[in-house]
Amino acid sequence: MKLTFWGATRQVTGSMYLLEVDDYRILIDCGSDFDRDEKEKDLLYQQQKSVFPFDASLINTVLLTHAHIDHSGNIPNLYKEGFEGRVVCTDPTYGLTALLLKDAAMLHQKRLNTQNGSTNRKRGKKAKVVPKDFFLEKQVNEALDNFVPVAFGQRYRIADHVAVTYIPAGHLLGAAHIYVEVWENGEKKTLCFSGDIGRRNYPLLLDPQSVPQVDYLICESTYGNRLHEDKRSPEVALADVIQRTCVEIPGRLIIPSFSVGRTQALLYTLNRLYVEHNLPPIKVFSDSPLAYGSTKVYQKHVRLMNKEAREFKEDNDMLFDFENLIYLESTDASRAISNYNEPCIIISSSGMVQGGRVEQHVAANIGNPYATILMIGYASEGTLGWRLLNGQDNIIIKGKKMPVLANIEKIDVFSGHGDREDLLTFVKNQDASRLKKIFLVHGEHQSMLDFQNTLHSTGYQEVAIPERGQTFEL
To answer: Cβ(221)–Cβ(438) under 8 Å?
Structure first.
């Protein structure tokens, strides 16, 4: 049995791991890589002649931990390059992945239209080469036809000698730790792919659950050297910001938020504040069609949420909809709220303020000292969100330099990733004397090194940090 690490190695994105058992090949996650820039990827694809460093047609099955695009975003390309198998995931993961992949296909189509549009044809210019990792809605639909949803906690045989069990991981609705049992030469071997590990007491979601003892643990390390700073509940933290920015002064609160997962946690928390804490009737604009679609998926799977959310739904009927909430679907409606002069809350994507409608809201309000931009998650270096968090006096949006007069705040209570202590709790469910090796993935290299040292100090000595393309015999 061999395990090769093809993504999220010494970096955060692009999760992709190849498990080979005799002639049976299993790909765990098939995500988009956002850590490499376009030039790097173009060079890599030229060398490989493909999006993948392996023959896609030889893969038998894909196991998907959860829907986020850095775990699912290359699945259509796998089919495009000859994969004919199934993608195994939970039912909510199927629903959310469908939305995310279709959204990505739409963005690809827009970029292609811009590159190869009517202007170029009229001028007789040669159409630009389509990037190898681009896919369109047709390829997405072909891929989705081969998804196989499975239930949490049920053992599912994907081959005579391989069984998998999906275990709640928190982090996102439907997200799973994948427990894999393999029989090879009469011997049973076990592995766990952690996926992304959530945090305890997160709005809506089940707490991450423990996994049976395994021989090999593949563990994410995004927050391997960080602790969440804010120890308040989401309700208390958000109510404090709203009180200061929309009640004590007649201001405007803009919250950049990822459409899938983060926005639903925000809307649910706001609903609780209105119902249980007498929040004043401030208009809330949810400005993301993808968030609207994702919220429908969440509404469909209330039974998979935590006890608090299920009880709130029973008592109040609606998890997300409340009197002052307005969903904005069209771009015209999105632009129009710049003329809304009452205190309000605008929730819009993307969470890092990199593309999406939120850029327009930030541009319209960055010079307003009565506006507050509230960052609620991680922002990669170089993104507009990162520049705001680092206190830059001026920012450039779409080529225009603007002074930063708005207030910039940050809370981390809505971060969907477990911190160092959450990761350590997950690992400590495993008996160090019976665990043959831990592989750290899905984190910045320094985060991995620091978490490796933490694990060593707690008695886990066999901890590897794989490089891209490195293979281990298990």
So the answer is: no
Q: What is the pTM of this model?
A: 0.94
Condensed to tens digits (0 to 9), the pLDDT of residues 283-293 reads 999 999 999 99
Q: Kindly state the tokens that stand for 130.
A: 């389509």
Name the token pair of 297: 């998926």
Eight-class DSSP state of 247: I
- How many CB atoms are closer than 10 A to CB 467? 9
- The pLDDT tens digits for 120-142 are 555 555 556 678 889 999 999 99
- Mean pLDDT of the 202-207 span: 97
Q: What is the DSSP letter of 81?
A: T
Contacts of 76 (CB under 8 A, 6+ apart): 101, 105, 135, 139, 140, 142, 143
The Cα 196–Cα 208 span in angstroms is 10
User: Measured between alpha carbons, how far is 43 from 109 in angstroms, rounded to an integer?
Assistant: 22
Q: Strand 162-168 vs strand 176-184: parallel, antiparallel, or unpaired?
A: antiparallel
What is the C-alpha separation between 356 and 473, in angstroms, rounded? Answer: 43
Would you state the structure tokens that stand for residue 436, as one six-digit string?
Answer: 């043959």
